[in-house]
Specification:
- The protein is of the alpha+beta class.
- Helix content is 22%, strand content 37%.
- It is built from nine helices and 21 strands.
- A hairpin with a 2-residue loop joins strand 13 and strand 14.
- Helix 2 packs parallel to helix 4 and helix 4 runs parallel beside helix 5.
- The radius of gyration is 22 Å and the shape is globular.
Length: 366
Amino acid sequence: MSLSVRLSHRFPGFALDIAFDAPRGVTALFGRSGAGKTTVVNAVAGLLRPEAGRVDVDGWELFDIAAGRWLPPHRRRVGYVFQEGRLFPHLTVRQNLAYGRWFAPGRSRDTAETAHVVEMLGIGALLDRRPGALSGGEKSRVAIGRALLARPRLLLMDEPLAALDEERKAEILPYIERLRDETKLPILYVSHALAEVARLATTVVAIEGGCVRRAGPAADVLADPEAVRALGVRAAGSLVTGTLVAQHPDGLTEVALSAGPIFLPRLDAAPGTRVRIRIEAQDVLIARERPRGLSALNVLPARVSAIHRGEGPGVAVQLRAGEDLILARITRRAAETLALEEGTACFGIVESVAVAQGDVGTFSAL
């Protein structure tokens, strides 16, 4: 599966000029409010007709303005999950799901398919309830289920967690991870929460002022020093992947990264689980020599692969630790004192407690 998007459109005081390609998985459109993320999704859905552009989902052409081709929204086979869920309040969960199935090709009555979606999203106990009796996270899961049962070729999710508190977000994120890993459905996911993007995204498209500033595999984009401004200085951080290898009796979980072990507060997962870990750039220290007498347990041998010096006192340093890229944000003075330059051998240091539970997710290979 692949997704190709080319869009151009002008509004009063704002111009949208977007181009990116992405493989299957979750393609996250990330950027500040007003960057143009929802406009892109609405154009893909057919709710906005752009002045120019073309969108193709694995050979299924949604439109090509130059060629005069335009599929109406109801023929695009696109599922759309809105921030509010938009369930029918007078229908039960079972009936809301049946409504989605009604729009599937051939009006599918496949009960096995419905049972799989219900099990995958953990909504079996909710089938006879109405939306008014559901929590925010439950409503979101039902909305996703209804969209899936329409058998879409592409799933659009526009800030689906924005209205939820942190507890509800933690409840639903594992279900979206499972959706990403168990289906071959491409997902276009809009968010302005970098931690959410790091946990879910296969591909990140950073949008600023209606233009793509950086696009590519999530680990590459998030650890790119040149992308810090588009991602947000304070929220910038990298994404590393590893395998959970041990649960220690002192409450720490050991994860094997390509550069060595890293220890985190206990994760609720079994040994052998593949995990994605977001590490904030501000939580990474750099040392030229392996430190001694330090409380931090996570010391990874690395080499400086890129440095970006901004206009202020901060410097973004990209480290390559094994196969992973780690982003550190330090002061210009520290970078000069350490004499850091591309190729410098060093150590990346991360406090175990600096990584929050919400910054760790699971995944399977796509």
